[in-house]
Amino acid sequence: MTLENYRFPAHRLQRQQRDPERTPLVLVACGSFSPITYLHLRMFEMANDYARINTSYEVVGGYLSPVSDAYKKAGLAEARHRVRMCELAAEETSSWLMVDPWEALQPDYMPTAKVLDHFEYEINHVLNGILAADGETRKPVKIMLLAGADLIGTMSTPGVWAEKDLDHILGNFGAMIVERSGTDMDEALANLKQYEDNIHVIAQMIQNNVSSTKIRLFLRRDMSVQYLIPQSVIQYIDQHRLYTDDGEGKSKDTKDKDKQRETN
User: Fold this and answer.
1) Confidence (pTM)
2) CB–CB of 32/66 below 8 Å?
3) Which of 83, 91, 111, 205 is most buried, most CB within 10 Å of its CB?
4) Tens of pLDDT along 244-256?
């Protein structure tokens, strides 16, 4: 897929609201997903439970938005592989999650604020929101960022995020943040006091510290990652021989082509 033939995925988006007293909500997780893990997927389920039990939101959709190759992060597999692994994971494990390749297709790094603007445009302008519970009127959808606690830690650190982007993300969209061990949430939130009404902290009732970094380490050491990531993703990694070298996310076939170009 290219930007020229890109189409926004909405096949699993709930088209009509069920509870007229609630506000429709779409959750968007941005990240490397190199590779996607069960924790990435589990975050959506935790956020869905949190929204239903603790807020007046009704979750009507969830999206994974893999970052583009322009991010230039160590261990980052090619975007086409990461998008496909996310698609396989969503298809295998969920009935409501979708993968939007728009960010991954960008030639340049796309700030999170602009990615959220993209979802706002596609869902509330192109699709005109969703059908209200009465079956007659249309209702706008609230777009919200879903992320781990490490992200909120960087947001609270001066100079890491552009002030206008931070204000746009937390002020206009808001965020659901899943707690992770090693992050001081109280300290992070203290520096974001002006946005506290738009930041929802979700406690992990069962601690899960699986990370893509640890998965890549296991794969490089030829160790099993069974039950840590979806089976379809394991098969895809094996098929394309991903994460075989230290710090590399390219498939072996791509590396061989790179070497051929260097010697020519």
Assistant:
1) 0.91
2) yes
3) 83
4) 874 455 554 544 4
